[in-house]
Amino acid sequence: MTRSRTFPGIAAIAAVVLACAACCAGPLLAIVGSIGAASAIGAHWLPGLALVAVAAGATVAVLLVRRHRVKACVLPTERSTAGRPRDLSVR
Question: In terms of pTM, does the model score above 0.85?
């Protein structure tokens, strides 16, 4: 009567799988639940969600255009010193 040598290996693998399942169950259920909630909201309030998405896209577009225009209209405050040596003398 010899004992199987694979039992400790199988037990270790089972312990690792159970530990992983216990640790990761909460976050996985949260992710699945949030996907399910988003699907339920989308199924019932699709026109409202479309309106929110269009409003968010328009807001982002306006902010980007405004930021681009502001950067294009600002004059530099100092002349560029590129290519010229700096004056390091102490006054």
Answer: no
